[in-house]
Amino acid sequence: MNSALDTLTRMTTALANCRAGVLPQTEMIQLWRSEAATLPLPVRFGEVLGPLLDRIEASALFSEESCSFSQKDLLDNLVLWAEKARAHPAIASH
């Protein structure tokens, strides 16, 4: 496996561990921010990921799901981001 795929695997594992309650959300977000910065992806990926992680951090302020900050939906969007990153030629062929 290449290093970019290894990085995405670490990121998605951290997300799964966060969802399972094994990894604190703050640690998952920190890992995603630092690891994503090392990926050879177009700038647009970062432009999407940064605000998404910001919204996830903000959603932690609410004890329950709210209509504007559904934590489940936000975490689902991280899964989608990772899938798109994994399929991007800069990662797939790297």
Question: Could you characterize the architecture of this molecule?
Answer:
This protein is mainly α. The chain has one domain. The protein is 71% helix and 0% strand. The chain contains five helices and no strands. It has helices spanning 3-19, 25-36, 43-59, 71-87, 89-92. Helix 3 (43-59) runs antiparallel to helix 4 (71-87).
Present the secondary structure layout.
Blueprint: H1 3-19, H2 25-36, H3 43-59, H4 71-87, H5 89-92
Discrete helix count: 5
Uncertain runs are: none
Radius of gyration over C-alpha positions, nearest whole angstrom: 13 Å
Number of strands: 0
Span between termini: 10 Å
Q: Give the percentage of residues in beta strands.
A: under 5%
Q: How would you sum up this structure in a few lines?
A:
This protein is 71% helix and 0% strand. The protein has five helices and no strands.
Question: Which characteristics define this entry?
Answer:
single chain; 94 residues; mainly alpha; 5 helices; 71% helix
